[in-house]
Amino acid sequence: MHPTLNTIDLVVSDLDASIAFYARLGLTFKIDEHAPEHAGCDLPNGLHLMLDTEGFRTPFLPGWSAPTGGPRTLLCFEFDTPAEVDAAYAELVEAGHRGMAEPFDAFWGMRYATVADPDGNGVDLYAALPAR
User: N or C: more exposed end of the chain, with fewer CB within 10 A?
Assistant: First the structure.
């Protein structure tokens, strides 16, 4: 058996706020006409990202409740340049999203920053640093 990871599903509190957040990172979600609490986005690398409201997903996960504390999952967005990381971080924070880690030059050779999406999920922004 060799299953294929082809979809990531995030449970969100506010579908519209999440769609607006991810639109700032270039993602376009389509709301399902049969289930307006569900939206999907096909990514260029063949991965599919879904957003489901808590109300939509809860009946399929008996006993589920929203997690508390820090994020356990982070979505990672690669940019072409370190300057684009800085600009994306600034835009998201200026739009009212919580910065979790300001842009920094990581010892592993990348410019890195982290912001929280509307539900507190970590979203990493990164780009390779120029070779020294």
Answer: N
Backbone angles phi, psi at 7, to 5 degrees: -145, 140
Give the contacts of 70 (CB within 8 A, at least 6 positions apart). Answer: 120, 122
- The number of residues in the chain equals 132
Beta carbons of 86 and 127 less than 8 angstroms apart: no
Q: What is the pTM of this model?
A: 0.89
State both tokens at 50. 């879904």
Closest CA to 32 of 54, 47, 15, 44: 15
Residue pair 27/38 in contact (Cβ under 8 Å)? The answer is: no
Dihedral of CA atoms 99, 127, 86, 11 in degrees, nearest 10, equals -30
